[in-house]
Amino acid sequence: MPQIQQTQVRNRLLAHVSAEDFARIAPHLEFVELPWRHAFSQPNMLAEYSYFLESGIGSIVAPSPEGHSAEIGIFGREGMTPIATALKADTDPFSTFMQVAGSAYRIRSAALVAAIDESNTLKTLMGRYAQAQAVQSAYTALSNAVHQIDERLARWILMCHDRTDGNDISLTHEFLSIMLAVRRPSVTTALHVLEGNLLIRAERGLIIVRDRQALESFARDAYGTPEREYERLIGKMN
């Protein structure tokens, strides 16, 4: 099988690593298709593989012992999972899985850890990505505390739009309710607000962004800081 070329990858982390670091991990990369609900990792369990997304959207969900859950972050072709592996922390208490089907390059976690041990530049890049993801999670908590539900919905749609080709985003009411940590009727109400402002069109299992600039204005300060932090630390997300 021919070795993957760095110029062929869409994943922003793989694109930003040095040529030397890419040559170090490329022989271990395997391209895989990822269906909806594909599980990357389970709470407090070692993950055999680490994934660098090429397309689609992954979800990081924090579960409670009582069976409740809330999404604390998403990632697409700008990122990888699980971050715990990249930080040599082994496990974390989260569930990570695909919310929008796509594809990725996967690598055995042991091989990734070995490559990180051999390269300070790769270690730095993984640390910077972990920082960017931590900022996203922190601003998710802030947004849940201070913003109205329709503004929070606008934020999540913008974040998904950043990680999607085109304006059509496969988002179910179930996914949106987990994103927003609210019941599905509240999601429906918030969608009607955004539709009424001609920002999106909502169909069954699909959100169509109609006016990206106006959607950003509607979200106000709920959107933007984590995205700027990613660009500061790593580079352009797209």
From TrEMBL:
Q: Where's the HTH crp-type domain?
A: 151-217
Q: What is this protein called?
A: Crp/Fnr family transcriptional regulator
Taxonomic lineage of this organism? Bacteria, Pseudomonadati, Pseudomonadota, Alphaproteobacteria, Hyphomicrobiales
**Species of origin:** Hoeflea ulvae
Alphabetically sorted, this entry's keywords are: DNA-binding, Transcription, Transcription regulation
Could you tell me which Pfam families the record lists for this protein? HTH_Crp_2
State the superkingdom.
Answer: Bacteria
